[in-house]
Amino acid sequence: MCGIVGYVGKQKAVSILLEGLKRLEYRGYDSAGVCVLQSGQLDVAKKIGRVDNLTREVSQRRFGGTTGIGHTRWATHGGVTDANAHPHLSSDAKFALIHNGVIENYGQMKQFLIGKGYTFRSETDTEVLCNLIAYHYAKEPVGNNGTNRFLESVRKSLRHVEGTYGIAVLCVDFPGELVAARKASPLLLGVGDGEYIIASDASALISRTQNVVYLKDGEIVHLTPASFSITTLDQADVSPVVDKITWSITDADRGDFAHFMEKEIFEQPLALENTMRGRFSEDGSTANFGGLNLTAAELRQIDRFLFCACGTAWHACLVTEHLIEQFARIPCEVDYASEFRYRNTPLHSNTLFFVVSQSGETIDTLAALREAKRKGHKVLAINNVVGSTIAREADGGIYQHVGPEIGVASTKAFTSQLMVGAMIALYVARLRDMSFSDGVKYVNALKGAPALVQRALEQAAHIQEIAKRYAQYHDMLFLGRLSLFPLALEGALKLKEISYIHAEGYPAAEMKHGPIALISESCPSVFFAPTNEIFPKVVSSMQEIKSRKGPVIAIVTERAELPSGLADEVIAIPDCHEAVLPIVAAIPVQLLSYYIAVERGCDVDKPRNLAKSVTVE
Length: 617
Ligand code: F6R
Description:
Blueprint lengths: L2 E6 L4 H12 L6 E8 L2 E8 L2 H9 L7 E7 L14 E2 L5 E6 L5 H10 L9 H15 L9 H10 L6 E7 L6 E6 L4 E4 L4 E4 L11 E4 L4 E5 L4 E5 L4 E2 L4 E2 L15 H7 L1 H9 L19 H5 L3 E6 L1 H18 L3 E5 H7 L7 E7 L5 H12 L4 E5 L5 H5 L2 E4 L12 H19 L5 H22 L2 H11 L4 E6 L4 H15 L2 E6 L17 E5 L5 H12 L5 E6 L11 E5 L7 H19 L18
Parallel strand pairs: 16-17, 16-18, 18-19, 19-20, 21-22, 21-23, 23-24, 24-25
Antiparallel strand pairs: 1-4, 1-10, 2-3, 2-4, 5-6, 6-7, 7-8, 8-12, 9-10, 9-11, 11-15, 12-13, 13-14
The chain binds fructose -6-phosphate.
């Protein structure tokens, strides 16, 4: 949450910062601001609302410098006001700071600084840190042992901070220099041609360079126009490793689509191909994962799986649980990462522990990983962002390879997590009792998934028409069974997050135990009704809704025969293998939510109160 970008180089900083902020806007969009260091002063512009507001403000003033910082905010401390927007200046106007994260002990530090005569214009924890840096700078009039006084005052201040941060700082006395640091908030350094860009997310720098250094917790980077150096809070030197980002600027562009979410929904056939690429055995009967760092013998010892994640990724884990238990016959448990981290769940040595996170930066999922590692347990990660904190801290894992997901509502990352889960179930099943021929059938089914998803996408126009008829409801239920119960949860989450319609997901039969009280003409139910052995049971749940005048939208597989007149709307998806069904079934609920949100005039890619990647607790 919140986006950070900083520039040191020869170009006019402000346009690079604004472009970076535009690309970072999906990380937070309450307010935005920039600060440029020019002619010995820090020029700041900040505005509540979207980056476009800021761009208008900036265009009315002269921002000529070649060093600057920019921020797009998702409010934590202090309301959404121009004053609370970043960058913040120290009260002596010597420092400007942008910050992602939460400084937990800011109250104490603020009292201390007020006692020293520092004044505050905002309610933020960030301004406190900015003044603390100014305080240490003023206290230490010359650099110690030839060290850089700017850098050392940041380092000293950070030693007092409890909480999390990704920061970038400018100092008027050091034109052309920038200091940045991180602890539990993502930060990477782009190494360009005669320029450096610091950012919380690769999308902010990808238009200028693909060469990046992923900063680790406790590291501080010092940029000058000619060089950069990385040290730790304890002043130890760090040898940087320059990595290459594998995707390019076109992957982060919306193209002709109206929204990133729409683009990402329609990208799913390709995204699934990319997730599978190179991951099947030569004999075509199982999956291969280079990054698990576990031998077949070690995997055979596993007697329990535990998956931790948040939100949509948690739903993907529930489907994986179903498939692992169904095909590999190994008990599997799924926990919310935010609960796991405080719950003291037993973790026995034969439990295989996975965290799942598209961004690889979700703080609760990261904390779950760290809690398990603290106990000496091995942690594997399913993750989409190469170089993310979770990817780096895990002992092994599986990358999703779906390219950047920019729409705040997760779509292609979700179906690719389902694909990875289905492949894990296959892999462990084949180490146990699944036969060669069942393995081949399973692999062929997975390979066929992109084409089936494509067919489901062909229902888009039909679903759009349905969306028009249902856009004005205030409540909706999503009901499914077995592997499609998590899809009911996901359908409800997608709808509420982008259209603000209250929605709940339930196992279809559970509806009788309470939620049926909600049913009336004004509460439609979306049912998943695939052809399988419990199809008749799902039909009777539908009948119970119908007899209470509840409108029914049925998502059926093509061979399913619904009693006529039972469903008000029918969306047909292809019949498919059990491991592929949840992937294909995701498409109609993604499209339905998307079109309903568009119909209601909602800002689909930037839903209220949300931001991509929840990096604060
Ligand atoms: C919903 C959504 C969120 C995320 C959740 C975890 O559409 O995107 O529920 O799934 O915040 O995010 P990651 O996977 O980045 O850990």
